[in-house]
């Protein structure tokens, strides 16, 4: 049986949405605005949660700068504060690349989304240098001041675990996603 | 804004639904995607300056939301549920007579790669090449060349399943 473009389109158009709007005016307005508010609040809460540990670290070590006895621990406290502030700055600067405009042409959307994912992956790939190692050095310095080897051993184990976790996430989620995005962009741009 | 939104929804809900259906794995996911598209339309509406046609703008949002959902599959994501939307339990697909052909069409669309799939969806929606170019960000000529090849692929697939062009 022969099939033409028009028949194909007509078959495609035979699907109708079983959805109908049952609220109008202010009720709809209220629900949409409530959902958006809730959605934005969830995103904001997640961002705050991500940086909360760094803020707690800043508060704790700001006190430690004055309270710590050994000089090496005071120096380590200052370094920890600088490191925590840097991590907040780095994570916020990457979030700036999130695609906020849902009405972009698809190719532009994919490219912007790819850029954001590439930035996120780069953070995970380099986590040793900007996150784990500086924090580890600070912990070791701080603990040396107090001759606290248990903290050093615990810190080493934690550093290894965080490193593994970040590498796992980069490999299992971000790498395949980036690969898919590259493929989709190439397929779209190619002939 | 409510009136404008209602107008957009009434004029485009079938198209949004069809595209969501092509990206979903089950009916529940179709509804989730559909509602997420509506929420994104609502969010973007105040910034819509009518530099493009309304339906072009709606297709962009729909495809971007569907692609985003696909990319985020498996990640922690809470679906949107709008009480303002009622779902009829009427058959959303054609009657039994043409259902087989219709399912074959979907099967063949699923077999295409992502880029080909979204272009063919816009073609099936009966969008002129100029509008498909505006939705995708490709040139009109590029769309025409690609669609010629994709349509051949689609018809080949349908032929393999017993339909001659």
Structural class of chain B: mainly alpha
Shape of chain B: globular
Order of helices and strands of chain A: HEHHHHH
Number of strands of chain B: 1
Helix content of chain B: 55-70%
Instruction: Please name the fourth-level CATH homologous superfamily of the largest domain in chain B.
Output: RNA polymerase sigma factor, region 2, helix turn helix motif
| Uncertain residue ranges of chain B | none
Describe this structure in words.
The complex is a heterodimer of chains A (191) and B (165). Chain A is an all-alpha fold. Chain A has a domain at 69-191. Chain A has 6 helices and 1 strand. Chain A has helices at 5-12, 26-67, 71-95, 106-125, 127-146, 149-189; one strand at 19-21. Chain A starts with a helix and ends with a helix. Chain B has 165 residues and is mainly α. Chain B has 2 domains: 1-92, RNA polymerase sigma factor, region 2, helix turn helix motif (Rna Polymerase Sigma Factor, Chain: A, Orthogonal Bundle); 93-165, Arc Repressor Mutant, subunit A, CATH 1.10.10. Helices cover 69% and strands 2% of the residues of chain B. Chain B is built from 7 helices and 1 strand. The N and C termini of chain B lie far apart (46 Å). The model of chain B has no long low-confidence stretch (mean pLDDT 86). At the A-B interface, helix 1, strand 1, helix 2, helix 4 and helix 6 of A face helix 1, helix 2, helix 3, strand 1 and helix 4 of B.
